[in-house]
Task: structure prediction
Amino acid sequence: MYFYSKDSARAELDNLGQMPIYTPQGTIVPLSSVADIRETVDTNTIRRIDAKRTVTLNIIPPDNVALETGVERVRSELVEHMKRTGEMPFAVTMNISGASDQLDATRSALAGNYLVAIVIIYLLLVAIFTHWGYPLLIMTTIPLGVAGGLVGLALMNWVGAILPRFGLDPIIQPFDMITMLGFLILMGTVVNNPILIVDRALYNLREMGLDAQNAVMEAVSSRLRPIAMSTVTTICGLAPLVFIPGAGTELYRAWAPSCCSAFWARQSSR
Result:
């Protein structure tokens, strides 16, 4: 059984026995009345890896600190500091494992998936338009979407930092793996609306006989309303999942900047 305190900076082991415990009868009793508190070591055995003695230190970062940020702080502020000041003997080696290894593997996989996603999107657009140039025009919205996502992420953290002034819990969304996944999904969604505009413009050129400028202007004016409607409904539909706290909302909260960037990219495609 593990106990976690939000006020860990001022928590003391001597006061642990006074922690209130709720009983099935509805009464409140101190922890010392139902348990004997003794301070002891974590294990009574010596663990070895490759015939070397090992000690495992579990570090759990706060909820508002991203995993990669916590790993980097442990590596730079703890491990490197101990090596630099000589607090850790040179014969002792330290390795960061656990969720850190999974984080590195996920980061490498996402880096490769970004390139694969761009290639797949381009090939699909080539198959749809039977042209090698139009997809490049459509995919220019992807950098706009990524830029909008970064702006949306910064704006969300700025608004979330103000919420405690109104008695609400703060909302902090770092640029972590879940957010990167949201950007990966964004790459496949921001191209939807430029597809409609380009397709309509090509129809105006080929079937209606309009010149290029008038064809594009008519395509934008005729597709602007459905594009705006789909964007607004998407943002409003995800808003409760993003701003109302609860289990699983971290995933949708990471997608919020993607929704904002999608709106920016769609309007920029005009």
